[in-house]
Amino acid sequence: MDYTEVLRRLAVSDERFADACALGPTLVQLDPKTLALVRLAALIAVGGAVPSYGAETNSAVSAGASPAEIVDVLVGVVSVVGLPSVVAAAPSLALALGYDVDDALENDGDLD
What we know:
Elements: H1 3-11, H2 15-23, H3 32-46, H4 50-62, H5 67-76, H6 78-81, H7 83-96, H8 101-108
């Protein structure tokens, strides 16, 4: 399906098309790694639940994204979603990557 048809169907809120989109990324032509990183960016933007960060981070890593690339997404959306959203997402994303920011801050006590 061509991109103009996708835009038209979304613009008119075509329910069957929306349902097909919600079932999975079968209509998406992005590679799996890019799609996973985009989904992480969206999760940061909407202030997703903690378990969602784990699932989306696992998808990104499985698709070949490195932890550094995943953190780059967090930094890359600051100018769009604002610092408060990124600050709120950082601990959840860190936990999803196996890093406990709160524990590290307690043990180090300082950022410098």
